[in-house]
Amino acid sequence: MDFTYDDEQQALRDAVRGLIGKKYSDFETRRQTVAADPGFDETTWSRLAELGALGLPFSEDDGGAGAGPIEVAIVAQELGRVIAPEPYLTSVVLAGGLVADAGSDTQRAEILGALSAGESILAFAHDEPGSRWAPTASKVTASGSGDAWTLTGVKEPVLAGARADTLIVSAALPEGGTGLFVVDPANTDRTGYPTNDGGRAARIGFNGTAAVPLGVGGDATSVIATGLDRARIIAANQAVGAMEVSLHATASYLTSRKQFGVTLNTFQALNFRAADMYISLELTRSIVDWATMVLVEGTSEEIADAASRAALQTSRASRHIGQEAIQLHGGIGMTAEYSIGSYTSHLTALDHLFGDGNHHLRVLAGKVGDHADVDPLG
Amino acid sequence: MDFTYDDEQQALRDAVRGLIGKKYSDFETRRQTVAADPGFDETTWSRLAELGALGLPFSEDDGGAGAGPIEVAIVAQELGRVIAPEPYLTSVVLAGGLVADAGSDTQRAEILGALSAGESILAFAHDEPGSRWAPTASKVTASGSGDAWTLTGVKEPVLAGARADTLIVSAALPEGGTGLFVVDPANTDRTGYPTNDGGRAARIGFNGTAAVPLGVGGDATSVIATGLDRARIIAANQAVGAMEVSLHATASYLTSRKQFGVTLNTFQALNFRAADMYISLELTRSIVDWATMVLVEGTSEEIADAASRAALQTSRASRHIGQEAIQLHGGIGMTAEYSIGSYTSHLTALDHLFGDGNHHLRVLAGKVGDHADVDPLG
Amino acid sequence: MHLKLSPEDAAFREELRTYFTTEIPQEIRDAVAQRRELTKEQIVTAHKILNKGGYAVPHWPTEWGGRGWTDLQRHIWHEELQRANVPLPLVFNSSMVGPVIAAFGSQEQKEKFLPATANLDIWWSQGFSEPDAGSDLASLRTTAEYVEDESGARFVVNGQKTWTTLGQYGDWIFCLVRTDPDVKKQAGISFLLIDMTTPGVTVRPIELIDGGHEVNEVWFEDVQVPAENLVGELNRGWDYAKFLLGNERVGVAPVGATKRVLASAKEWAGDLVAEDPFLAARFVELENELLALELTALRVSANSADGKPHPASSVLKLKGTELQQAVSELVVDIAGPGAIASGAGEGSDLEHWQARSTPAYLNLRKASIYGGSNEVQRQIIARTILGL
Amino acid sequence: MHLKLSPEDAAFREELRTYFTTEIPQEIRDAVAQRRELTKEQIVTAHKILNKGGYAVPHWPTEWGGRGWTDLQRHIWHEELQRANVPLPLVFNSSMVGPVIAAFGSQEQKEKFLPATANLDIWWSQGFSEPDAGSDLASLRTTAEYVEDESGARFVVNGQKTWTTLGQYGDWIFCLVRTDPDVKKQAGISFLLIDMTTPGVTVRPIELIDGGHEVNEVWFEDVQVPAENLVGELNRGWDYAKFLLGNERVGVAPVGATKRVLASAKEWAGDLVAEDPFLAARFVELENELLALELTALRVSANSADGKPHPASSVLKLKGTELQQAVSELVVDIAGPGAIASGAGEGSDLEHWQARSTPAYLNLRKASIYGGSNEVQRQIIARTILGL
What we know:
Chain A has helices at 7-23, 27-35, 42-51, 69-81, 88-102, 105-116, 221-256, 268-297, 300-329, 340-353, 357-365, and strands spanning 122-125, 141-145, 148-159, 166-172, 178-183, 189-194, 200-213, 258-259, 262-263. With 378 residues, chain A is of the alpha+beta class. Chain A folds into 3 domains: 7-120, Acyl-CoA dehydrogenase/oxidase, N-terminal domain (Butyryl-Coa Dehydrogenase, subunit A, domain 1); 123-218, Butyryl-CoA Dehydrogenase, subunit A, domain 2, CATH 2.40.110; 222-370, Butyryl-CoA Dehydrogenase, subunit A, domain 3 (Up-down Bundle). In chain A, the strands form 2 sheets. In chain A, strands 1, 2, 3, 4, 5, 6 and 7 form a 7-stranded mixed sheet that branches. Chain A has a two-stranded antiparallel ribbon with strand order 8-9. Chain A is globular, with a radius of gyration of 21 Å. Chain A starts with 6 loop residues before the first helix and ends in a 13-residue tail after the last helix. The relative contact order of chain A is 0.11. With 388 residues, chain C is an alpha+beta fold. Chain C has 3 domains: 7-89, no CATH class; 124-235, Butyryl-CoA Dehydrogenase, subunit A, domain 2; 252-386, Butyryl-CoA Dehydrogenase, subunit A, domain 3 (Up-down Bundle), CATH 1.20.140.10. Chain C is built from 13 helices and 8 strands. Chain C has helices at 7-23, 26-33, 40-53, 71-83, 91-104, 107-118, 237-249, 255-269, 272-275, 277-301, 313-335, 352-363, 374-385; strands at 124-127, 143-149, 152-165, 172-178, 189-195, 201-206, 215-226, 230-231. In chain C, a hairpin with a 2-residue loop joins strand 2 and strand 3. Chains in contact: A-B, A-C, A-D, B-C, B-D, C-D. Chains B and D meet through strand 3, strand 6, strand 8, helix 9 and helix 10 of B and helix 10, helix 11, helix 12 and helix 13 of D.
């Protein structure tokens, strides 16, 4: 068992930090970027493609770089550190991951090739009004056969849905189960809007919209489940990056901000709370690193378990750290001009994308009687 | 709605404090008292009788003082303040309460008369190995009819069971339901032992032991349930007394104990934690006072609800305050010679006598959907 | 000790309930229930209706519109307002500057300002905090220099205030200003009333993390303020501020409003409450803590006979804001995936409360910072009550 | 980054697992599993068996019985001991005085003490804390006066130590003593080895709140200690103590033992886990936090190449003791009404673990106080790691 990055991984981290960290080193740049559609910087997206970051998880045959979850996690952590608004998690990790897992040779080459090259934004239209992070669809239904299908119903919220060039859509199949389809968004009714953290989401209406099955078609519930688990683990990595910077910004503020004639770190109660934030962060980093390794080597069942465990811990920690970061900053932490509140906002969004702590607590409670203990060393 | 004591109630409080508070003003007295059987001071018990405190909840016809829950709660708070080991809660409130509610005229006059006069210790043998605070019995069974019954099985732990002169025993009835019986403990197999907080409990074996039904006999489950609810609310009052003194002892220690050349109240983090203890205490006092008033005026359903609410809050607060009191004292808080750890020990016992916080959380969660909100003003 | 309301208090409550639910326009109460941002007009309308009924400033001296209620009645009034989704009377007018003028102002100031303040004909803003004076309010730097010449006696004000809530609507602003720089910092502060239309006053909105603009910076550049706008004595402003902040904390626990949101949350959650025991448990815990808090508010108000804030009012502020925040967090979780959709508009298939859930949660992070942070409250409890 | 143990480490673990479960007597391991108090004989027996296998002091210099393991191997060793319910090697010997003598002692001291210390032929006690020197250890007052006369060079020790765990079994005690009262308090402290049979040494047990007597006061009245029992240099004792405390904190998180108790608790709870979702949730939360803690211990041990304690070891100590306490609290709740029956003896119908639950819970309140209180750990994190 080894938690250290090898040289190539370190080089990747440095390269991504050089690009993204530099781009958003001034928080005002991020603020201006999210203020205007599409909510991220297309140039930066292209540079990420040039760096090979967009194709990391995909095989070289599909136009990717043939790396794996560790490398993807590195990118996610770096994005989290500057809360970069580029839709990496949704487009590359979630939607791209589904195509990699279930797409036909042609679909993979076409869709993932364009995605890796930065030429196409992909989105996964899955959440439905009233749904709660299940791997199934019910309000969007599919009808048809062979390669000729149509979809009807509403997906909302769909991250990056308004900007997406291609949609992967989940839909209830006539015979039961949930299928995955490739849809040209031009044929849908799309309304985009900002999310709380400056991202973008959309309502997408399907009204007999033409759709092509992803891969061989049929029930893809387990593919979606694993795709969501993967996204959970990578989202947790992104949260770790954001929490790390939140903590350091808070510690730095405590040593510089004066009240009552002294810097805030004169007040032991505040220092102790910062120490508790550090504890939350370290524990989370450990479990998220571990879950990322499980993503490399584990079965889908092990991945599901690790995803829930990482998500539970990350949910608890991101609330703790996000709330305390604002509180310890005081009034300035409430303002949009200053960065810290936006970190909390982003952590709140990440927490609710694929199931919050309570959701994963339920999942884990359902099977807690099945084992005597949890042993990460097997 | 009024939270203040009237003059008579204040006088009662002063009188009990004068007796019990004085008796145990030196913690060493309490320590020596609980070290030897029967684990409390018989003389103090007699004085409580002389004061009228033992007969407070019972009607004057039954030899009592005809007062009510407010007065009983006042006594319990005072006992809690010095963690007095006298078996008031178990003998007067719990066992006596059942006799008052369900006993025949003769039984009430005899049993409650002797109890009020301090001549007889009463115990309620109800818990069974494996039981969890239900108002029913299963491992002790009753057989017989009319006034001629026998009991078989084991009750454990029975508070004050080894010292008791008369037992009230719950037992599963042949036709279903749980009955209450009066038993002479001489006919049982009793083994007494100390509880963690210096109290006394016993294993009591019944082996075809003669028993007389309490009152008209038959299923007494609802009588037991209300009896337990009453005991919960009074136990919470006792806990409030203990928590109040724990907090003040802790605050006082912080202002006197020196470390690093200064008193501990120089350390803001410790002061803030004491402030959080105060918040817990104040919130608990409010809900416990309220529950005590519900005990006076409410239906059995309202009493059950108030008992669970008071018990839930008290459980949370007594853990918080009990744990922090030791932690803020440091090493000395771990020693039996110093009082604070015994307060925590007693709070832990009170928390587990009639259902801990988790138990009451379950009860309340089962009916949370039945109301829009909780309105104490009706 | 007894549980029930007296018949008089029960009748009093009924009277309030009827007035609030029949006199205040439904659309305003709906907006509150749906956690929408209120317009200035809605706030003013509700306030004026309350004032008409004698419900805007009942705690003022009777001479100026007060009602001489008992503490319990004031508690009932405060809870019933929230229960009926009525916007509270504008706090800057009714709980802050009004009581200060009534207690310390000159007869001229009282006559000029109090009726207009009670009726929200003047919208007051608060000018206390400064960028470098947060919890340490007394270190404020905005100066008011006394000048007396041919144009009359006046103060010339220079400096910057911040966190001025709803300052964009303000007609007048009451400020703490430094009038003597040479003494201990609390000793050189005065309490000044400033017409916000005076040249040199600039209001700049601050965007908050929920996207709203409810707070502002207010700049003063050589602003000329007539000397008669000084409240009370020169350099005694700190005392008046403490009086005001004490008033502010009374009834500061937003129990009623939080209960109302929690009850709404239960509706929004629907079947989930029965399906998800952990969600049910969160409702139980929050309801129980709110019950304990409400009872504490009742117990405390019943005991503060001398009009001074009971020391336990810090408990109300601290726990009240914590619960307000916890309920807002619960709503985000109930909103599920829809919690991120803060920008969803009319065409959205998500519920409005889902879209509002995260902005409301983020906005309420302020509750434990403003108005005496929870750290300040802990300090008060530790020092004043526990002697630490 | 990779997940699995290497084949070598897996084999290493298997070897330990076999040794621990076959060589250590079952009755000793049962006593640990049932949370019974161990006798002195049981502790000594287990320690000697471990030492025979090379498992008592693997972290010492190889010259004195160390094994030159990697950090990961040491972690595995520590976890497997706890997993197999083996009493850990006596900490005073293996983690405290042994490493200090090995690092700073004279050759004579090494030869005289190290083999006997490794084999628990000498039972060491710790003499650091004093009644007025708790978290502020350096304010200790026990004095050692240097005397040289016809009977030889020696120290005369006077004073009192406290919280001496298992001091009733001690043969020797290692003490921090003040040898120079005139300098800054850390600077005048020396590290002295004292034979507890020397006249003037008195051990008095302290009763704890669980009714046990595991800690003691130790009194020194004109105790004559040969000068050769000074470790290292005069007045450098504070440095050695810091070295020792650093050692103590490594692997201080009792993850394995806590996991074992949690697994037992699940057995004890039986059907309740399935019936009570809130109980299930507590198991989930504790298992998850223990997992995070164990992974942190692995991650940290893998990164501390220079042998110094990783700054994150404060996280291990703090969170480790919190979880240990939380698990003990869970067991009390599972015990239900039986939790009060601490005095129940052989004839009781309650389970032994029920009777032990509350004493164990109360006893473990010490975990966050002793060995550097959790407040001290927070201070270390804030200062050393966060620069506050």
